Amino acid sequence: MRIVKLPQLIDPHVHFRTPGLEYKENWITGSQAAIKGGITTVLDMPNTKPPLTTLELLNQKIETVAQDSLVNFGFHFAAATDNLDKIPRVVDRVASVKVFLNHSTGNLQITDDKILEKIFRGAPLIAVHAEGEMIEKAIWLTKRCGNQLYFCHTYSASAIDYIKKFKNKLPIFIEVTPHHLFLNKEDHLGPFYQMLPPLQTKKDNTALWQAISDGTVDTIGTDHAPHALEEKNSANPPFGVPGVETSLPLMLNAVNQGKLALERLIELMSVNPAKIFKIKTNPKTYTEVDLDLVKEVRNADLKTKCGWSPFAGWQLTGWPIKVVINDQIIMENEIINNNYKGKYLYV
């Protein structure tokens, strides 16, 4: 038994599906999954129903989520073609402004360069969903407009290689997901491994790990995107997989395998996301892990509402055993204290 205390662990990229898609996940089940996985803080994406595109919707969501969340939380605000005037009013109250340069869940993709330039000039930190040539466009816009740029779910060797050319010249940050690190399209087929951006090859897995080793990657974000089993088993399965509950055990297992140092894991999952998204550190918020604890990922044990994981059946070494938020024990030996209410980060 090797017990280690990790500072507040932050997942900067989750989809907890509220409002409008609560049959997939809600903030009770989503935050329980986060706690079970050792995560103390989450930043939620805006492509819900309706999407988070106005100050009024932001205030409503803060009030609603504060009733249910067991973890501290923040939101990314959605840029749209018709809310340019709303962005200056919210930038100090959200983690970032999210721009969809490629298609994803929802209808928020923006293709008009003039609108994009106004958005990039109006927000200090832009988070982008960018694949292929849109990566180049995002960097061009940042170079032109002077904002900071956060690449969500960077997925391939080519994407890493291109972004890396500009990373020392511009304020650019790179997020990588556990599913793009551990899964690939050669070994993992079927609807339960379909997500956007899609899985790549084993060579891309290796390139992402190399980018972690050499300091190119800044954060681990899960892109936790749960869907109901019947949806995934349908003729037109949606894109996305859950991940907030398994990201820390997967990364701890990688530590045990010598793929990264524990100090590097802390940078990726605590120090860097706190700096990028201006989250105050709190020494009274931490997660204790047992680096020697061996457990299997089992669907029956999951707290996420969807009840499945692409990592089901994986045996991992290194698991969270205790979570403390603001000096209160929220989870110990898998027993969750459901009485704690998380705080909004950007008041």
Question: What's the CATH topology label?
Answer: TIM Barrel
Report the span from N to C terminus.
40 Å
**How many individual β-strands?**
13
By DSSP (H or I, 4+ residues per run), the number of helices equals 11
- Which stretches of 5+ consecutive residues score pLDDT under 50? none
| Structural class category | alpha/beta
Residue share in β-strands: 15-25%
- The name of the CATH architecture is Alpha-Beta Barrel
The gross shape turns out to be globular
Rg from Cα: 19 Å
Q: How are the strands of the biggest sheet laid out side by side?
A: 2-3-4-5-6-7-8-9
Give the domain tally: 1
N to C succession of SSEs: EEHEHEHEHEHEHEHHEHHHEEEE
Which labels suit this protein?
single chain; 347 residues; alpha/beta; TIM Barrel; eight-stranded parallel sheet; five-stranded antiparallel sheet; 31% helix; globular
Overall description:
By secondary structure, this protein is of the alpha/beta class. The termini are far apart. The protein has one domain: Metal-dependent hydrolases (TIM Barrel, Alpha-Beta Barrel). The relative contact order is 0.18. The chain has eleven helices and 13 strands. An eight-stranded parallel sheet has the order 2-3-4-5-6-7-8-9. Helix 4 packs across helix 5.
Short description:
The chain has helices at about 25-35, 55-65, 85-90, 115-120, 135-145, 155-165, 180, 200-215, 230, 245-255, 260-275, and strands at about 5, 10-15, 40-45, 70-80, 95-100, 125-130, 150, 170-175, 220, 285-295, 315-325, 330, 335. The chain has about 350 residues and is of the alpha/beta class.
